[in-house]
Design goal:
Layout lengths: L1 H6 L1 H10 L2 H25 L7 H28 L2 H15 L19 H34 L6 H25 L2 H27 L12 H4 L17 H4 L4 H28 L4 H20 L6 H21 L5 H25 L7 H26 L5 H19 L11 H24 L6 E5 L2 E9 L12 E7 L2 E7 L17 H7 L2 H5 L4 E5 L15 E6 L2 H6 L10 E2 L9 H7 L3 E6 L2 H10 L6 E6 L14 H9 L1 E10 L8 H10 L3 E7 L16 E7 L2 H4 L34
Parallel strand pairs: 5-6, 5-9, 6-8, 9-10
Antiparallel strand pairs: 1-2, 2-3, 3-4, 7-8, 10-12, 11-12
Length: 757
């Protein structure tokens, strides 16, 4: 473990010995605040936008673009202003940024349901943390520049490693220290006081420069291209001084390579995060793991070039890419722990290669602001590609395929240009032949996986909320053994089935998949005392899917769906128009459950937007819904929108339900055990919970039900007539001992790993 000691304790000791404390404190604090605000603000707004993974990637785009703005400010003010003028300007910026405090998102930014979510998130973040984030972004390159001016002959590049260490400390402490022990409001106020402390420290550094502790001159634009300027810069290795003119200005090819070597890992970071969040949950921990690995590679590579050994990390990156391809190829059949490990290893090794090559090619400190500006530009380009471009050119999540291809391309480009390695300039030919062959084979496997995913699909679309896929097949006994209903059509959101419908006129009203008669929700509706006595049920459904729940609709019933994704509504036959928040007209879409239900005389509508946000608005307007049955089944793929399973949200559900109403929560999941959460929430709200495990479905006559899709439901209610009915009790299953009797999610606190199977 000597290498770990040398990177951590040894590195910290060296920094305190070689650098003034004012720079250490300012850079570390700014980096800490810069990266702690990211998961904090993203978690704050996550429930407003449906808890989708795209919320985090959109936030990351915002952070990367503002980081670019901060680096551009540092570069151009350093190039065009005298240090004294630059410090005066920065003092003003620090003062103005304090106006944004405290950084608490205003409720006015909650979406109504018809906005472009990406635009809304970017505007919200800009109004909440825009200028403070820009000011923090300027600190790293600006402090390194000021250090170079006040301490000629010393390398500033270790301060970049210190900056990344501060960022890593923020990320690692957030899920283990701040998130579980502070409410979001307390976090925001604490962060704001931390920003005030940073502003004071930064102003002190600026005062030292303003006092004339350096040559009062700016580097002109010509200096950036001709190599003219002070002769006390550090060499490219960052470990000894040399004549700046000998290094020369970066070539155009160098600058393009820097952008590529930073853009490809940026795409890989966001693509890896997306991949993990889609199959588990959109939670800070799964945001932080990839981002921490990404930062660790910066720390290691810029601490010292000896940590990056080209042959070793080349081999590891090729092996890890193969493991990632295996996970993509096997999909949800691979254990989530293995997936997280494989994706993390792939991200780490490829980032080590790209960031290692960046560190080896870093220029003289005279060009460090330009260097960091181009690195941040590459990061922003990667974010723009993932958030804005990819959803418009790909109908699936192919960013990870693209990212690995790009990483290996720029890796080989860096090898080609590396004068200090034996692969320089395409020699020897045999070694390049082997390398190109292996990389081409891996890239081919990735894209064959992408093409394979497109086979047998009749419709696919992608938007902010994920990938929707429709395919058709014939009932050859796989769906049913005792029945033959002919061809069927199925909807998937990500990797999870979201509804199936038979296509023939005689069979298309059959209740299928997780919603068949003997499922938990089937029992809650069919055997509801109100339904048995008088009919006319009032049913609420969180999550539309293919609209299968509408198959339960009878004349006099009312069914209200809550659906955040307008594309899902259109596929189910809803006539969605711009600016429309409630859909009441239905035609024959890809699925006909809604239209068929309406034709039978059932009142049916779909409310667009996040269910929780819309229910809060309805309650604020004095419109409690009075549901007899409320169904919660809004999971995208196996990802869990935790904000729909918190104590705060459960209390909201109950306010919209009749006193004898039944809350039916779908808890089927490949990776997470949701049963303890729902049971504890039921107890916390003084309700009883019953378990219906529909793994061996039979209909009321003892025959196999029309769909074998196993599903687990928990019904939460105080309706004793329902619970004690002899028609209901045969369907109930005994709970096992509760492994987590005290675990309750709230809006401020939530633990994912305690419920992982």
């Amino acid at each position: 473990m000597n290498w770990l000691y040398r990177i951590t304790i040894g590195h910290i000791t060296a920094i305190f010995h070689d650098y003034p404390f004012r720079y250490i404190a300012t850079i570390f604090l700014s980096a800490f605040l810069l990266f702690q605000v990211q998961p904090m603000i993203a978690k704050s707004i996550l429930p407003w936008f449906g808890g989708t993974p795209a919320v985090w990637t959109t936030c990351m785009l915002f952070f990367q673009v503002l980081l670019l703005v901060g680096y551009a400010y540092a570069h151009f003010t350093s190039a065009r202003m005298k240090p004294s003028t630059q410090t005066l300007m920065h003092w003003g910026l620090l003062v103005v940024s304090l106006i944004f405090l405290p950084i608490i998102p205003d409720e006015v930014w909650k979406p109504a349901g018809d906005e472009n979510p990406v635009t809304r998130i970017l505007l919200l973040l800009g109004a909440t943390i825009g200028l403070p984030y820009v000011v923090l972004s300027t600190t790293g390159p600006l402090m390194q520049r000021w250090f170079s001016l006040t301490n000629p002959g010393q390398s500033p590049y270790r301060l970049f490693a210190l900056s990344n260490a501060g960022s890593l400390a923020a990320l690692l402490t957030y899920p283990f220290v701040f998130e579980p022990n502070m409410t979001l409001s307390t976090q925001a106020h604490s962060w704001s006081w931390g920003f005030v402390l940073f502003a004071v420290s930064c102003a002190g550094c600026a005062w030292y420069v303003f006092q004339g502790k350096t040559t009062d001159q700016a580097i002109s634009t010509n200096d950036l291209t001709t190599g003219a300027g002070p002769k006390s810069d550090v060499s490219v290795t960052g470990n000894s001084t040399s004549d700046a003119d000998s290094a020369g200005a970066p070539a155009f090819g160098d600058m393009l390579t820097w952008i590529g070597l930073s853009a490809a890992p940026s795409v890989l970071l966001l693509a890896t995060t997306n991949q993990m969040c889609q199959e588990v949950a959109v939670v800070p921990f799964l945001w932080i793991v990839p981002l921490s690995l990404y930062l660790i590679t910066f720390i290691i590579c810029f601490d010292s070039e000896r940590w990056y050994h080209r042959p070793t990390f080349l081999l590891l990156s090729l092996i890890s890419a193969g493991l990632v391809w295996h996970c993509l190829d096997t999909g949800h059949n691979t254990a989530i722990q293995y997936q997280v490990a494989a994706y993390s290893l792939g991200l780490f090794t490829c980032c080590m290669v790209c960031h290692g090559e960046l560190a080896k090619s870093k220029p003289s400190p005279r060009y460090l602001t330009l260097f960091f500006l181009l690195i941040s530009a590459g990061g922003a380009i990667g974010g723009i590609f993932v958030v804005i471009i990819a959803p418009r050119i790909f109908d699936q999540y192919w960013e990870i395929h693209t990212a690995y291809t790009a990483c290996f391309f720029f890796m080989m480009l860096a090898y080609w240009r590396a004068k200090d390695w034996y692969l320089y300039n395409g020699e020897p030919l045999w070694a390049w032949g082997i390398l190109v062959s292996i990389v081409s084979m891996i890239a081919t496997f990735f894209w064959m996986n992408a093409v394979h995913e497109s086979v047998d699909v009749v419709y696919r679309s992608r938007d902010f909320y994920g990938v929707l896929t429709i395919w058709t097949d014939a009932d050859d006994g796989y769906l049913t053994e005792a029945f033959n209903y002919g061809d069927y059509k199925s909807l998937r959101h990500g990797a999870t089935l979201h509804g199936t419908q038979y296509t023939s006129e005689s069979s298309r009203r059959v209740k299928t998949s997780y919603y068949a008669n003997q499922s938990g929700v089937g029992v809650a509706v069919r055997l509801n005392p109100k339904q048995l006595k008088s009919g006319g049920l009032n049913i609420g459904v969180v999550g539309l899917g293919a609209g299968t729940m509408a198959a339960y609709g009878e004349p006099g019933d009312r069914i209200r769906f809550y659906e955040i994704n307008p594309e899902v509504v259109r596929l189910s036959g809803g006539e969605v128009h711009a600016g429309q928040l409630e859909v009441t007209q239905f035609s024959t879409g890809e699925f006909t459950y809604l239209k068929d239900c309406q034709d039978r005389g059932c009142r049916i509508d779909v409310v667009l937007g996040d269910a929780r946000v819309q229910m809060e608005r309805q309650l604020a307007d004095g419109r409690p819904q009075g549901f007899d049955v409320l169904v919660v089944d809004a999971f995208s793929s196996d990802s869990i929108p935790m904000h729909l399973l918190t104590l705060n949200c459960f209390k909201l559900y109950l306010k919209h339900m009749d006193e004898n109403g039944i809350l039916a929560v779908h808890v089927s999941n490949r990776y997470l055990s949701l049963e303890p959460i729902v049971r504890n929430l039921a107890r916390a709200t003084d309700r009883k919970a019953v378990w219906i495990d529909w793994s061996a479905p039979k209909n009321d006559n003892g025959e196999q039900d029309p769909s074998p899709s196993a599903s687990n439901w928990i019904l939460v209610t105080n309706n004793e007539e329902f619970l004690n009915s002899p028609l209901v009790t045969p369907h109930l299953e005994p709970f096992l001992e509760n492994p987590l009797p005290d675990l309750i999610w709230t809006d401020d606190f939530g633990s994912l790993w305690q419920i992982m199977d």
